[in-house]
Design goal:
single chain, about 190 residues, alpha+beta, Jelly Rolls, 7-stranded antiparallel β-sheet
Length: about 190
């Protein structure tokens, strides 16, 4: 009986570990206040609750622009933001041949009715950003931004991943679940 309990505990721990291993994409966080100061003009506010201790604000009335350089090769990005107006659009441009071209326009969902509302994350915005790119952000409406998270493109994740892929995790989870279920069924069949 003691051997079964130990086996059960070990299998349960392996299963929990398999569930706890995350196959999330590698991400690089860029604080909103880390813009290129010589070519950007956002409003910057100190706030100890923000990830970098500050957040920035841009709006179309002020003609605010923020530019970031040396963005890693990315397949998507997320914006941690706060906005109160319907119809706010974040315009994203990428530099090509010393000119900025439109990359994507992101419709921003309002986070609340006042500027004290919490910051939220956008869904992953799928784009192809080459290594070392320069990005420019403007907006229609007004938006406050705490940070950006860039989801690295597969080629930046290295030759040998340090964690199993999503498919490998699923196989491990099903195998452990199968062994665990078989042991429980054998025990129940013997007790009947």
């Amino acid at each position: 009986m003691k051997k079964r309990v130990c086996c059960f505990v070990v299998l349960l721990l392996v299963f929990i570990l398999a569930l706890g291993v995350s196959a999330e994409d590698d991400r690089v966080r860029v604080e909103a206040e880390d813009f290129l100061p010589e070519v950007s003009n956002p409003a910057v506010a100190d706030d100890e609750n923000m990830s970098g201790g500050k957040f920035i604000g841009i709006d179309s009335v002020g003609g605010h622009v923020i530019i970031y350089d040396n963005i890693p090769a990315s397949k998507a990005f997320v914006v941690n933001y706060r906005a109160i107006h319907e119809g706010t659009i974040l315009h994203v441009f990428i530099e090509k041949d010393s000119e900025f071209e439109s990359l994507i326009d992101v419709d921003i969902t309002p986070t609340g009715e006042d500027w004290g509302a919490p910051f939220l994350d956008t869904d992953e915005i799928e784009v192809d950003i080459p290594e070392g790119s320069k990005l420019k952000f403007t907006c229609t409406g007004s938006i406050s931004i705490d940070y950006f998270e860039f989801i690295l493109a597969d080629e930046d994740q290295g030759e040998e991943p340090t964690i199993p892929s999503t498919g490998d995790l699923a196989i491990i989870q099903y195998a452990v679940f199968g062994v665990f279920s078989t042991l429980l069924l054998k025990k129940r069949v013997r007790t009947i």
